């Protein structure tokens, strides 16, 4: 059994590589993209075959994924994540009720969309016979790697900056990851991992330093298309850190178009960052091809606290080709949105997801998007992993109860 993969390709120079064997980055030091024989795939697989698949979650898109043998697919019971429309909180955004949909990725195993990318990276590691994986992480990548690798019987070493939220390092350890804190930032964790590759023999699945996490994240785009009846929204707001998701979705739309499975206008892709760490926004505003390192990165939305992205030029390309834009919002705006959407619509957003809502509000106010546009926001993780408001009210059961307290 073989996949439809034809070769790998340097995303910058176009240089071709054989698909077999271990790959990190290209000779130019840039990400490698997986290419498929879409002609043969289109002859042998129809859209209807996908629709009638009973594989769990994104594994229904296996013809467009690189895993050869179904036995190597590592699954933890993935689901098709729902599109939940903002109704009452739409007013807070200045949007029409029902026009803004949240793709709620918090429902995936380990509570974040990192499951998509790491499921693919781990499945390919299994296919390629890798026995030890390592990753530097601010949180969600570590727990997703630990979970899928444990299930595959693969060892993991996970390095987190010392200020990683405890819940993230702990969930990682609880799912079998050999987890260490490092008294530095994510870049230092990455350096230790790449320098240790020869010494220890682990393989790094650091963002875009291997070709397969993008393929997993690509399934967000295919899933969205199928879910919308092979149509796409007018605008996608995506919380952008390393950019795997925005790059992956843009790749998905190109492949689906080439296959003829979609035939619609592609969405405008909006890269959302925090004003405390906005290298992509700065590069977009200045018309640069690459983004400069962002000094002193600081935001509560840890998933998008990424001062330098290896795929910067690919993120910027997707934004520009799609007629989208890049926009930064403050942590204050983010926290206000977490509260508004939780209170008004009962949906607990993670700060990264709330950033997309805050950006959508600004874009509507400034006329960067229209109120007739159908908009999809990505809620990339569960809000349960982040600090929540404390409950401070204590009622004394033995005293007279003041029912005025509850409001009537
Ligand atoms: C990793 C992460 C992001 C950023 O994802 P990329 O696709 O790498 O840009 C956003 N939100 C959360 C919660 C994350 O864990």
Describe the structure.
The protein has 408 residues and is of the alpha/beta class. It has 2 domains: 5-74 and 112-204, Rossmann fold (3-Layer(aba) Sandwich); 83-107 and 218-385, 3-Layer(aba) Sandwich (Rossmann fold), CATH 3.40.50. 36% of the residues lie in helices and 15% in strands. The protein has helices at 38-44, 47-51, 90-93, 114-128, 140-152, 166-174, 186-200, 213-227, 244-259, 279-285, 312-321, 331-345, 351-365, and strands spanning 5-10, 16-17, 32-36, 83-85, 100-104, 132-136, 155-161, 178-182, 203-204, 235-239, 268-274, 325-329, 375-379. It has a 6-stranded mixed β-sheet, sandwiched between helices. Strands 8-7-6-9 form a 4-stranded parallel β-sheet, sandwiched between helices. The chain has a 3-stranded antiparallel β-sheet with strand order 2-1-3, with no helix packed on it. Strand 7 (155-161), helix 6 and strand 8 (178-182) form a beta-alpha-beta unit. Helix 4 (114-128) packs across helix 8 (213-227). The longest helix has 16 residues, at 244-259. The chain is globular, with a radius of gyration of 21 Å. The mean pLDDT is 96. The structure holds pyridoxal-5'-phosphate (PLP). The site of pyridoxal-5'-phosphate has 18 residues, from helix 9. Keywords: Lyase, Pyridoxal phosphate. It comes from Candidatus Thalassarchaeum betae. GO terms for molecular function: L-serine ammonia-lyase activity; pyridoxal phosphate binding; threonine deaminase activity. InterPro entries: Ser/Thr_Dehydratase (IPR050147), Ser/Thr_deHydtase_PyrdxlP-BS (IPR000634), TrpB-like_PALP (IPR001926), TrpB-like_PALP_sf (IPR036052). This is Threonine synthase.
